[in-house]
Write a structure and sequence with these properties.
Blueprint: H1 4-17, H2 35-62, E1 69-74, E2 79-84, H3 86-94, H4 105-108, H5 112-119, E3 123-126, E4 138-146, E5 152-161, H6 168-203, E6 207-212, E7 217-220, H7 222-228, H8 232-235, H9 247-256, E8 260-267, E9 272-283, E10 286-296, H10 298-343, H11 349-372, E11 380-383, H12 384-401, E12 404-409, E13 416-419, H13 421-437, E14 443-451, E15 455-461, H14 469-473, H15 490-500, E16 504-510, E17 514-522
Parallel strand pairs: 12-14
Antiparallel strand pairs: 1-2, 1-5, 3-4, 4-5, 6-7, 6-10, 8-9, 9-10, 11-13, 14-15, 15-17, 16-17
Helix pairs in contact: 2-6, 10-11, 12-13, 13-15
Bound molecules: adenosine-5'-triphosphate (ATP) and magnesium ion.
């Protein structure tokens, strides 16, 4: 680094010998930007000028008692902004210094602004360091600043009287400019980030909703508007409760401070189905809000239903051979028995067999129709405790006839789940029937309901002889049955239904302890209230 006195000496030499300036004269700054050019230049510096002003006003207030005047210039020395002590202002005005005027050596002589721009370093000129005598009682400090890394964008200068000048002024100004640069840089990054976020938010097909910790919507993008049908203007600034379908999920996340993922949501009016993920947002470990994104999976679900349906139809096609066989057996016996009846009308005992065979055909046809039914489900939030209680009540009498007792270890609170109620009852009926069938001598069937963090587990326990290895291997396989009158379709229907609820079925079985069938269903976050079950 060259010593600053060298800059001053070189400049003074030039002023005297090259520009032939008279040190006793009053400098006249003739070059200036037009009003229009000045406005454009100020706009170019935009936010930076007001950030500089903010910091320098603070500095002025710290230096109360010291007359201080601030001048901000561009990199060519044009004054873009100036403010501060009145007496100094009067002096600079008499010199013709106002916004737009350019500081240049040929007219201003040795001055701190030109030197700071030229050498890219903080410069101080006190009294006679200046070329002109009229500045002998003035102290000027100039520090270059940059907006884009490394490039001088202009200067910030501080003027005061020589008697008030201190050796700390330049350091003070330099550290203020350092802070200004950092602030400008942060603002620039934030702005870029904001623009990127806006672009991302508005172009993504994902619906995005951001709320604060009280559930007030702060961001709601175009895709969210398309999916939910709620106008952006009505959403932003309002509570998440304006979206009753989504609101419980957000409340759940804000309350539990835990994310929820892949929640299926239907928007019937928009005829759309979505999968939604919601994450809690934290700042320094403190909850600040929630971020929700949802994708429209309507066409995917329609396609999935079509695939399931066509798979079913093809399965039914393959099964028809077995089905025909299943029907032909009872039909053959019915035909045979009716022939006997034609000959001997008194053989009424055959009527019973005919009736039971017809019932078997009827059941087979019903189950078959049920199996082939379209996959579309009608899910809604239901209390699984009432569903199990109702089913147990419904089956109580038929169980009694077979010497079986049904027990439901009922929790005290509701357990809301997002399921298709009638399909779910069908699952319970099939499993309870299997449990009763497994106990020809009678016994107890107990049903437990376990509510865990992310899932609900329903267990149906019986005291039967258990399932063999082969029965377990064939679990859920259509038409696999070990019963005389069994169709072997109950477990297959149950598996299908539970799968369509994103759940799973498991089995524990032994000949001493009977069989336990576990249905695991993911807990649904849209149900705000969770029961307190230990
Ligand atoms: N709780 C149980 N204990 C012992 N074996 C069982 C139990 N549940 C199912 N099984 C075995 O699995 C087989 C298949 O059951 P599934 O419910 O699919 O058909 P099914 O009961 O035989 O006839 P249906 O179609 O009338 O239900 C049964 O035949 C039986 O062998
Ligand atoms: Mg069964």
């Amino acid at each position: 680094m060259i010593h600053p006195t060298h800059y001053i000496e070189t400049s003074k030499y030039k002023c005297q010998h090259v520009f032939a300036l008279d040190p006793t004269s009053i400098p006249v700054l003739t070059r200036s930007l037009s009003k229009e050019q000045l406005r454009e230049r100020q706009q170019e510096y935009g936010q930076s000028l007001s950030t500089i002003r903010e910091f320098m006003q603070k500095l002025i207030s710290f230096l109360s008692g010291t007359p201080t005047y601030i001048v901000t210039t561009d990199k060519e020395g044009h004054v873009l902004d100036s403010y501060g002590d009145d007496s100094i202002q009067r002096m600079v005005t008499t010199l013709g210094v106002e916004n737009g005027v350019q500081f240049y050596e040929e007219a201003a002589g040795t001055n701190s602004i030109t030197l700071a721009i030229k050498y890219g370093e903080p410069i101080q000129l006190i009294g006679n360091d200046h070329y002109h005598d009229c500045f002998e009682n003035v102290a000027c400090f100039s520090v270059p600043f940059s907006i884009t890394k490394g490039e001088v964008a202009g200067t910030v200068s501080l003027m005061t009287s020589k008697e008030h000048a201190s050796e700390f002024h330049l350091g003070l100004l330099s550290s203020a400019v350092d802070s200004i640069e950092r602030e400008i840089n942060t603002q620039k990054q934030n702005q870029e980030l904001h623009v990127n976020n806006q672009v991302l938010m508005e172009t993504t097909p994902l619906g995005i909703i951001i709320t604060n910790k009280d559930g007030m919507i702060s961001d709601f993008n175009k895709s969210a508007q398309m999916i939910t049908g709620l106008e952006q203007e009505l959403a932003i600034g309002n509570r998440i409760t304006v979206l009753p379908d989504i609101s419980p999920c957000f409340h759940h996340v804000l309350k539990e401070e835990k994310p929820v993922e892949n929640i299926e949501l239907a928007f019937p009016e928009q005829q759309k189905t979505c999968l939604i993920d919601i994450l809690p947002l934290f700042n320094d470990g403190v909850l600040t809000g929630a971020y929700g994104q949802f994708k429209d999976v309507t066409s995917y679900i329609e396609l999935q239903n079509q695939v399931v349906q066509s798979e079913k139809l093809s399965a039914i096609g393959k099964l028809s051979a077995g089905f025909a066989h299943e029907i032909r057996n009872p039909l053959t016996s019915i035909i045979g028995l009716t022939k006997i009846l034609e000959v001997d009308k008194k053989q009424t005992k055959y009527m019973e067999i005919i009736k039971s065979e017809l019932e078997r055909i009827d059941k087979l046809v019903n189950e078959f129709v049920m199996y082939g039914k379209p996959a579309g489900t009608q899910k809604k939030t239901c209390d699984v405790v009432s569903i199990i209680s109702d089913t147990v009540k419904l089956m109580h009498c038929s169980a009694k006839k077979k010497h079986a007792n049904l027990y439901f270890n009922k929790p005290s609170d509701h357990v809301p789940l997002y399921i298709d109620e009638s399909q779910f009852k069908q699952v319970l009926i099939n499993l309870i029937n299997n449990a009763i069938d497994a106990m020809p001598e009678g016994g107890d069937v107990s049903i437990d309901l376990g509510v865990h963090d992310t899932e609900v587990v329903i267990t149906i326990n019986d005291e039967g002889n258990g399932m063999s290895q082969k029965e377990i291997e064939n679990f859920g396989l259509p038409f696999y049955s070990t019963k005389d009158k069994g169709l072997g379709i109950g477990l297959s229907i149950c598996s299908d239904i539970v799968k369509s609820h994103n759940g799973s079925i498991g089995v524990n079985s032994s000949d001493e302890n009977g069989t336990s069938i576990h249905i695991t269903l993911p807990y649904d976050a849209r149900n705000e209230r969770r029961p307190n079950i230990s």
